[in-house]
Amino acid sequence: MDKIVVLDFGSQYSHLICRRIRDFSVYAELVPYDISMDDLLKLEPKGIIFSGGPSSVYDNDAPMPDSKIFQAELPILGICYGHQLIVNNFGGKVKRANKEYGSSLLSIDDNIDLLSGFGKTIRAWMSHGDEAEEIPNGFEIIGHTENSEAAAIANKQKTVFGIQFHPEVVHTESGTDILKNFVINVCQVKQSWTMEKFVESTIEKISKIEGNVLCGVSGGVDSTVASLLIHKAIGNRLQTVFVDNGLLRLNEPYEIEEIFTKNFEMNFEKINAQEEFLLKLKGESDPERKRKIIGEEFIRVFSKFAEKNGPYKYLAQGTLYPDVIESGVSKGPAAVIKSHHNVGGLPDSLKLEILEPLRDLYKDEVRKVGKILEIPDILLNRHPFPGPGLAVRIIGEVTDKKLEIAKTASKIVEDELQTAGVYDQVWQAYALVGDDKAVGVVGDERKYGRIVMVRVVDSIDAMTADWTRLPSGVLERISNRITNEIDEVTWVSYVISSKPPATIEPQ
Question: What predicted TM-score, i.e. pTM, was given to this entire model?
Answer without folding.
Answer: 0.75
